[in-house]
Specification:
By secondary structure, the chain is of the alpha/beta class. It has six helices and ten strands. A five-stranded mixed β-barrel has the order 5-8-7-6-9, surrounded by four helices. Helix 2 packs parallel to helix 5. The protein is globular, with a radius of gyration of 17 Å. Its EC number is 2.4.2.1.
Length: 232
């Protein structure tokens, strides 16, 4: 089978895929959490693995940076490999004062400055949202694990270095929790395919307090998020 971006054959990818941005993070997850993990993709070094967790088959694959990248990989997973659910696990910059470093936030909705939705030629503005059942299960799992997650609106931006110095303040005043670069495209691809998607994020920096965490601290916060995601 395969595609220009994925060498996997049909049946090599599980129905649920965890998707960090960094392909090396995908390798770390496979090595750390999955049993009998086998690599199904090395094209463009976008590593993908399938293994088992508590007896259940699960896959993990990198998605890259930005909506064009995750848009390609998730489209193919949904449409070419019969994947049913994709859970993005990544990092984000906090906007609101009540969001702290290493907090886990879940994107119930994903605002965006991207024109990704233009391809659907809709007669209005589409609101990209998470799958409710995945969202509910993630919140309940976090509660059992003693993790206080925050749920709400996030921003998926096409721009990392924005020329508008006021852009973050404008989103912040609308209550947006944090900014990342992929969830909106994931949610739109899932909606169009009739599939499931969720975005979970660990806060790595705060955009209004000039705070950030080290690589080792990011790893510990990421582990907390992973233990929730793996139960979904």
């Amino acid at each position: 089978m395969g595609t220009p971006h994925n060498a996997a054959e049909k049946g090599e990818i599980a129905s649920t895929v965890l998707m960090p941005g960094d392909p090396l993070r995908a390798k770390y997850i496979a090595d750390t959490y999955l049993e009998d993990a086998r690599c199904f993709n090395t094209v463009r070094n976008m590593l993908g693995y399938t293994g088992t967790y508590k007896g259940r088959e699960i896959s993990v694959m990198g998605g890259g940076m930005g909506m064009p990248s995750i848009g390609i990989y998730t489209y193919e997973l949904y449409h070419r490999y019969e994947v049913e659910a994709i859970i993005r696990i990544g990092s984000a910059g906090a906007l609101r004062d009540d969001i702290q470093l290493k907090d886990v936030v879940i994107g119930m909705g994903a605002c965006t400055d991207s024109n990704y939705a233009a391809q659907y030629q809709l007669p209005g503005t589409f609101a990209p949202i998470a799958d409710y059942r995945l969202l509910e299960k993630a919140v309940n799992t976090a509660r059992v694990q003693g993790v206080n997650v925050k749920v709400g609106n996030i921003l998926s931006s096409d721009i990392f270095y924005n020329d508008d110095d006021e852009v973050n303040a404008k989103w912040r005043k609308m209550g947006v929790m944090a900014v990342e670069m992929e969830a909106a495209a994931l949610y739109m691809n899932a909606a169009r395919a009739g599939k499931k998607a969720l975005c979970m994020l660990t806060i790595s920096n705060h955009l209004f307090r000039q705070e950030s965490i080290s690589a080792s601290e990011r790893q510990s916060g990421f582990g907390q998020m992973m233990e929730i995601a793996l139960e979904l």
